[in-house]
Amino acid sequence: MAVLSTEEFHDLMASINSHLYSELKEANEGSRLFQILSHYKLDAFLPRTHNPQPNHDAWGKIVLVGHTQARSQQIKGAFESMGISFNRVDCYFSDDINRFRIQNYQHNRGYCLILFGPMPHSVTGMSGASSGIAWAEQEPGFPHCIRVSNQSGELEINKSSIKRALQSAIEDGYIERDLKH
After folding, report:
1. pTM of the complete model
2. Which one of 7, 89, 135, 141 has the fewest CB atoms closer than 10 angstroms to its CB?
3. Is the Cβ–Cβ distance between 62 and 88 less than 8 Å?
């Protein structure tokens, strides 16, 4: 398609503005404004005090699963330094990985993010898939998944890799900070 002339562009914008105004006005009167703004990826413009879904996914819990040599205080510090309360985090490390049930997080809107570190390829509940991480990344209904890795791209859970993963999730809108940062 060719570039529109200035006049054509202004006419197009006027039509879009009129259409959006009518749709948003109707949505507001029907208590559906947040859903409509979300559909157009404009929900960030709505003040939080008017958000009808204050517990939407970005404010949910986070799962961190995988083997690590990091101390729990370092891990807690990584989350809190990024403005995320550690109360929002469920951790499954080393021996706890056996208790991790990946299927518990599918279609569970209470969780907004799963951070995967090094772990066995096979985990309980992945329906025969070759890797629990790949299964959660590909199957519908899971929270956003991020592989926590070092600078070389190898799966590794440490303070720096957690901070990089959280920064990515925050920038992409998958999680919100709940502490002053």
Report:
1. 0.67
2. 7
3. yes
